[in-house]
Amino acid sequence: MKKTENKCDLHFLHVGKTGGTAIKSALSDYLVLSRYSLLLHSHETSIKDIPENSKFMFFLRDPISRFVSGFYSRKRKGQPRYFYDWRPDEKEAFELFQTPNDLANALAGGALQDAALKAMRSITHLRKYKHWYVTLDYFESRLADVFYIGFQETMDSDFPKLKVLLELPDSLQLPNDDVGAHRNPQNLDKSLSPKAVAALTDWYAEDYVFFSRCKDLKTSNNGRG
Predict the structure, then answer these.
(1) Are 150 and 162 in contact (CB under 8 A)?
(2) Contact in structure between 211 and 60 (CB atoms under 8 Å)
(3) Residues 16, 19, 21, CA angle at the centre, nearest 5°?
(4) Using H for helix, E for strand and C for coil, what is the string for 2-46?
(5) What is the distance between the alpha carbons of residues 128 and 132, in angstroms, rounded to a whole number?
(6) Mean pLDDT score of the chain, rounded to an integer?
């Protein structure tokens, strides 16, 4: 494992819309720990960018839940915590599709299916998990480097476990406001039709295989979860 100033490097991969902003905010004052030097990465860093024999950790989220969150995050251009303007393809997508359900229903078929396919590939936060894990075989080859796997759905129990592993103070808490945690407002229409759910389940089929594998690793404690 690579060492920095006699400490082992520990990389946090920021998988979009899985609670990573809140985690990085909480960890930002604890980059140098007793055993580790924490390296908090951006969305663009994948497992293949982490040197072999260096430890890494990440959080995931159910792919359809993540789709809904990612759609609205980009629709509001990351505001109010950030501001990242739409790229031309994103602008086109949000002019056509007002809700996640609109986009997912179009993905299932019909006159707007081609536009929906383009939107799914263009809207940043809708990218598939393969952007981070590369291939399932590659991920399996790096299991020895996995330090911790957590899940957005169980953040309230997973983050305290991570604090124990990192020997962080018990008083350390995640941001609990929408801006600090980079959460969507609660009043958004997050409903999905059965047709939309079926289309998204098919679109994210590989993501669900990876998600399930990581759940198994957490259960078996290989992912330290």
Answers:
(1) yes
(2) yes
(3) 80
(4) CEECCEEEEEEECCCCCCHHHHHHHHCCCCECCCEEEEECCCCCC
(5) 8
(6) 92
Which has the higher per-residue pLDDT, 141 or 220?
141
Q: What angle do CA 130, 134, 137 make, to 5 degrees?
A: 115
Q: 68-94, pLDDT tens digit by residue?
A: 999 999 999 877 777 778 999 999 999
Residues 205, 13, 51, 37: what is their CA dihedral angle, to the nearest 10 degrees? -160
Beta-bridge partner residues of 32: 37
C-alpha to C-alpha distance for 5 and 44, rounded to whole angstroms? 26
Q: Which DSSP helix (H) or strand (E) runs through 105?
A: helix 100-107
Please say whether the beta carbons of 12 and 41 come within 8 A.
yes
pTM reported for the whole predicted model? 0.89
Tokens 């920095």 identify what position?
Answer: 4
Query: Distance between CA atoms of 16 and 213, rounded to whole angstroms?
Result: 19
